[in-house]
C-alpha cells in the first residue's frame, strides 16, 4: 500500500478532548472513540504497521499532563505527537493564560527534542456556550500564546477557534462541555488537513436548525444544569476530578484494529 504520510508511530496526549469523551463507542478501548482514534484510523489505512497510543485522561490539568504523559509518550519513540492541554486550567477561576502558556512552551520543547512532528490545538470559540462563555477572553489570549509557541518550536497548529462549524450546537455532546461524534469527526478532518494527510472523510453538512421555542429552551437549560452543571460544580468544590481512578485507554503503541477502522 502506498504511504501518503511519513509517520509510523503516533501518540496522543491530553485530557477528555483527546480521550474522546462525548463520542461513546463500546467497541473502542475505554468505551470512547474521539477525533484521535479517527485520525489514527486514517493514518493506518495508509501505513499498515502504524503504531498508535492514546495517553489522554479526562479531567487532567496541564501540569498533570506534563508530569504523567510526556516522558511515557517519548519512551514510545513517536514520530507524530498531538497534544491538547491547558483547557481545564483556563476555565478555572484566577488562572493566568500567559503563565499556563509558559508551561506548555516547555512541554512542546521537550516533545520536539527527538525530532517528532508535534501538533497542538487552540481552544474553540466558546462564546455561545453557557458557563464557559464567560472565559472566552482568556481562551483568546491563551490561543495567541499557543500560536507563538507553535511558531517558536516549528509545531503544527490546529486552529479550532477558526473552525466556525463548531458553533453549531449539534457539534456538542448533551453536557455542552465535550464534543459530539459529529464534532469529533469534524475535528479529525481539521487535524488531517493541518497535517497535510489525504483522506476521504466527508465534512458535516447539516440541515438548517429550526428555532426552539423559548419555553422549551428554558426547560432544556434547567435539565442540563441539574444533570451536568451541578455535578461539575460539586466536583470543583470537593477538589475531585472526572478522571479520578481513570487510566489511559491506549497506554501502549499498537496497531489499529480492523474493527476500529470500520466503526
Automatic annotation (TrEMBL):
Q: Which Gene3D superfamilies does the entry link to?
A: SGNH hydrolase
Chain ranges of the SGNH hydrolase-type esterase domain: 12-184
Quote the Pfam families the UniProt record gives.
Lipase_GDSL_2 (PF13472)
Classification via PANTHER family: GDSL-LIKE LIPASE/ACYLHYDROLASE, PUTATIVE (AFU_ORTHOLOGUE AFUA_2G00820)-RELATED, GDSL-LIKE LIPASE_ACYLHYDROLASE, PUTATIVE (AFU_ORTHOLOGUE AFUA_2G00820)-RELATED
UniProt name for this protein: Lysophospholipase L1-like esterase
Q: Which organism is it from?
A: Diaminobutyricimonas aerilata
